[in-house]
Write a structure and sequence with these properties.
The chain is an alpha+beta fold. It is built from three helices and eleven strands. A hairpin with a 2-residue loop joins strand 6 (88-97) and strand 7 (100-107). The mean pLDDT is 92.
């Protein structure tokens, strides 16, 4: 099966929830497709697969910037709704028990508590001063710029980096 790469000639419409319908320039239509990121989180708008209800890839978006603006907006909204990544605004407490970190944080979606099993693997600092955190349940959190955290939060964070 040939891989179909979407371009600005193709049209994407919202089907329902986070699902989309794709109409190719040649008239072929694929309904109820689920957008998912293929590449790491540092490239959130590139290489997005569109899967049918059986999990089979039907189309690929190389870059949302190559789509028409309406299609690009729909894909961004769908991905943002699916990949709800709370932003950590403040670190309230960090404790360590048997090598497992317990974080209590305030996020843009309220207070959360979660465990981190491997600080070297599950806490990633980027060159742009953002930090991505993955908890033991594979949920993800982000700190947009650790330099903007309050003093206590930065101190707690520095003990774990």
């Amino acid at each position: 099966m040939e891989r179909i790469y979407l371009t600005s000639e193709d049209r994407i419409e919202l089907f329902e929830n986070n699902l989309v319908t794709v109409t190719l320039a040649d008239g072929r239509t694929f309904e109820e497709l689920e957008p998912r990121r293929l590449f790491p989180v540092n490239m959130p708008e590139k290489y997005i697969t569109l899967l049918d209800k059986d999990g089979v890839e039907q189309c690929v978006i190389r870059d949302t910037g190559e789509l028409n603006s309406s299609s690009s907006d729909i894909i961004r909204k769908s991905l943002n709704d699916y990949y709800l990544v709370p932003e950590i605004l403040r670190i309230v407490n960090v404790s360590d028990k048997y090598g497992i970190l317990r974080w209590e944080v305030d996020t843009d979606r309220g207070r959360k508590s979660f465990d981190i099993r491997n600080r070297n693997h599950d806490i990633r600092v980027s060159a742009d001063c953002s930090i991505r955190v993955r908890d033991s349940d594979d949920n993800r959190y982000v700190i947009s710029d650790y330099r903007m955290l309050d003093t206590k939060s930065r101190k707690l964070l520095n003990t774990e980096l």
